Amino acid sequence: MSEKTKALKQKECEMNLIKKELHLLFTSYDIYLKQKVFIFREMDLYKMQVESLKKRLNEYSTDVGGTKIIEDLTKEIAVKNGMISDLQNKLVSTSGQKEKISLSEHSLKLRENLEQILLENASKEKTEEFLSLQSKIHLLKEEYEKEIDGYKKEIFNLKTQNKLLENKVIKYEKEATTTEMALLKERELHQKYSQIQTDSFLEMKVNLENILESKIKEISKIKPEYEFLKKNSSITAAKVDNLSLVIAECKKNWQNYQSLVYNSKNITDDTLIDELGNLSSAFDSMSKSYNGLLQRVDEYFKKIEELEKANLDLSIQYEEKINYLKTFTSDNSDHFMIYMEKLLETNELRLKLSQSESNLLNLRKKYEALILELESEKESNNNLNIKLIEYRRRVEEKNNEMNSEKARVLESENTNKLLKKIVYSIVEDGSADVFDELEKYKKLFRCMACDVNHKDTVITKCMHVFCHECIDKRLKTRLRKCPNCGEEFHVNDVQKIYL
């Protein structure tokens, strides 16, 4: 029976662990709300980025050679708008799931949600897991039914043992009454024939004393069995009380836990996977935009090198023409008009140089802005990579938690069923009769004089059993007579017994 009490204590510990897990589920729900707030912030950031890109479009639309940049920026704006719409859809889905969580309180609705999830995610792995769980549940049910049958058999054996002991007690009570009657007859014969003490009467007395001693020995043998039954009956009563309390707590915890398990399942299976998909798509779009910006930077750098080469060529041509004009004017003063035309050409070349220099400055500014954009895009890519790693880790943790929670839920279901069956079996088999029998046995072990203390001393003359305190009081007050039969006794006639 000690092993059974240990098993009950273990089950109580498991119920405490389930309560702790429920607390952890509440904390995970708070984390889910924080993630929602984080998504709102990301939407605001994306909207700010879209506005900044629109401003840049307006700025670049004024430039003549910025058509490619405008097209790229429009693509980026479209990508950002798509990301915003994805986040809005994600929020709509999370809000819909929250409404489902508030509505999914009953077990039938939870089963319907499970069937819908299985139909939507009709994959072989999940169906195999579901079938394996069902097989495990079936095996656990069979094991617990076997244990319940064992408990029922033990209870039936205890009842039969109680009945046998009751019959033995009745027999020994009858024998004790017969012995008492025999002793009374012997006393009467002793009083009547005190003067006639023959050998036949002495032999009868010796035989009766031997019979009494044998009966006392048999009673002393039965006493440990009676104490064992008494202890078992008290243990069963305590178990019934503990089981009733545990079942009440299990019902409450099971209702709360079942709703939270399926809600956490919906959260982990739907929202986190959607978030991972959105993050991966966002990461791909950002990587594409990053590669486009790198190509643009290379193109601008090539244009700058070409313009610098063109400026060098123009400056060389300008110097050559000036030298030519100088030599020409010095040698030929008649060709003044030609000189003036060449001067006009040089002025035009100077204007072109100034324009090319201004274009170079503009391109350098654009190049620096693109470099800043590249740095910001690198930072955003790093942040997205960190988020992806965190979400993957969270998904793995949630899946592990869900698997452990599934196993624990199955264990709690089986323990609840087992405890219910044990309680119903005890109630149906008649535990009230057992308590009545226990009270009867308790009365047999109480002192007949005070009805408070247990019997622990015997008067050897009359063989009546009382408590030590009652007999001490009679010895002190010198009322040395048996409270039951009135037989006189002395200090030497009192002996201790251990029931």
TrEMBL record:
Q: In which pathway does it act?
A: Protein modification; protein ubiquitination
Query: Which InterPro entries does the record cross-reference, listed alphabetically?
Result: E3_ubiquit_lig_Bre1, Znf_C3HC4_RING-type, Znf_RING, Znf_RING/FYVE/PHD, Znf_RING_CS
Which top-level enzyme class is recorded in the Swiss-Prot or TrEMBL entry? transferase
Q: Where are the transmembrane segments?
A: none
PROSITE patterns membership? ZF_RING_1, ZF_RING_2
CDD domains, A to Z: RING-HC_Bre1-like
Name the catalysed reactions: S-ubiquitinyl-[E2 ubiquitin-conjugating enzyme]-L-cysteine + [acceptor protein]-L-lysine = [E2 ubiquitin-conjugating enzyme]-L-cysteine + N(6)-ubiquitinyl-[acceptor protein]-L-lysine
Location relative to the cell: Nucleus
What terms describe the molecular function in GO for this protein?
A: ubiquitin protein ligase activity; zinc ion binding
**Alphabetical keyword list:** Chromatin regulator, Coiled coil, Metal-binding, Nucleus, Transferase, Ubl conjugation pathway, Zinc, Zinc-finger
Q: Which GO terms describe its biological process?
A: chromatin organization; protein ubiquitination
One Gene Ontology cellular component term attached to this UniProt record is:
HULC complex
- Can you tell me which residues the record assigns to a coiled coil? 1-90, 141-175, 290-317, 346-415
What Enzyme Commission number(s) apply to this enzyme?
A: 2.3.2.27
Ranges for domain RING-type come to 447-485
**Similarity annotation:** Belongs to the BRE1 family.
Q: What is this protein called?
A: E3 ubiquitin protein ligase
Q: Which organism is it from?
A: Anncaliia algerae PRA339
